[in-house]
Every structure is written in C-alpha cells, then in structure tokens.
Amino acid sequence: MTDGSVDAVQASPIKIEPVDAKVADAALRLMRLLEQPKALFALRSGILRELHYWLLESRHGSAIRRLGTEQSQADRIGRVIRVLRQQYGQTLRIETLARLAGMSEASFHKHFRAITTLSPLQFQKQLRLIEARRLMLASGETITNAAYAVGYLSVPQFTREYSRLFGAPPRRDIQLSGGSCN
C-alpha cells in the first residue's frame, strides 16, 4: 500500500480533491446497483471491498487507516460522537466528554475539531438542529415542540441558530415542505 502524505489532511480537515478514477468507477457501479435489488444483494459486498481497497491505496490511505485503529485519537473521538448522537438533547460537560475520550480538555478540543471541523458544542448544536428539522418536516412537530424536544430552552434562540445553519427560518422550511407552522 502506498503511504500518502497526511500533513495537508491534518492542517485542513476538510479538503476537496479530484476523485481517483478507480474509486469513482467502483462508487458509480455501486450506485447503479441501487436500481437493481437482486444484483445489489449479490454484488454489493464485493464492490464495497474493492472500494475500500482503492481508498486505502489512495494518497490518503494512511489517514483513512488511522481512523479505524483502536485507541487512536479518531477512535476515541468517535466514542464521544456516539454519545453526543445518543444524548444530543442533554447538557454534556466538556470535562466529561474529554474524560470519555481519555484526553485532557485541551487535547480533546484539538482532536475533536481536527476530525469534525467543529467544536463539541457546535457539533451538538448541529445534531440538535438537524433532529429538530426532521421532527418538523417529517413528523409534523411545531417549531416550539421541536425546539424543546431537542434541548433548546428558548424558541427565539433556536430560530436564530436554525436560520444560521439552514439559511432560512424554520417557518419557511415548514411552509416550503407543505406543512403548517401552528
């Protein structure tokens, strides 16, 4: 396997680069199988295995391998992310999350941001807003009920943060989806 440089990945966690032709080919074949359930059942594991191989052989293969290493920073941050996903509506203290990751608070912040490009608080806020959006658009919840359900104590604060993330206030999203804002 090639050992690609990860300096650029560590300096800037999100980076857009052209996709390797072999990766693109495998991904495209996998997507085309979505329209053919029988073929998908028979071929998906082989194509996924091929896709994994080409990704690990790519320029960023070493960084990808590190993501799956047990007790790596990525693995420990992944544990925290799972807790945040399960408990997004609760107030979680940074010291508790850092302890869960087995890191100091400063190290935890640094590694969390490197992996997610967000602070833990920003990450939790996005989880809350995404879930609130789902509740309003898919389940018909009111803005107020959705805000409280995901842990917001202030509906105006919820509306401001929702608008900042999604580019429109919740009322407009609900109206565009054909729902009612009651």
TrEMBL record:
<protein>
    <submittedName>
        <fullName>AraC-type transcriptional regulator family protein</fullName>
    </submittedName>
</protein>
<dbReference type="Pfam" id="PF06719">
    <property type="entry name" value="AraC_N"/>
</dbReference>
<dbReference type="GO" id="GO:0003700">
    <property type="term" value="F:DNA-binding transcription factor activity"/>
</dbReference>
<dbReference type="InterPro" id="IPR018062">
    <property type="entry name" value="HTH_AraC-typ_CS"/>
</dbReference>
<dbReference type="InterPro" id="IPR009057">
    <property type="entry name" value="Homeodomain-like_sf"/>
</dbReference>
<keyword id="KW-0804">Transcription</keyword>
<feature type="domain" description="HTH araC/xylS-type">
    <location>
        <begin position="78"/>
        <end position="176"/>
    </location>
</feature>
<dbReference type="InterPro" id="IPR018060">
    <property type="entry name" value="HTH_AraC"/>
</dbReference>
<keyword id="KW-0805">Transcription regulation</keyword>
<dbReference type="GO" id="GO:0043565">
    <property type="term" value="F:sequence-specific DNA binding"/>
</dbReference>
<keyword id="KW-0238">DNA-binding</keyword>
<dbReference type="Pfam" id="PF12833">
    <property type="entry name" value="HTH_18"/>
</dbReference>
<dbReference type="InterPro" id="IPR009594">
    <property type="entry name" value="Tscrpt_reg_HTH_AraC_N"/>
</dbReference>
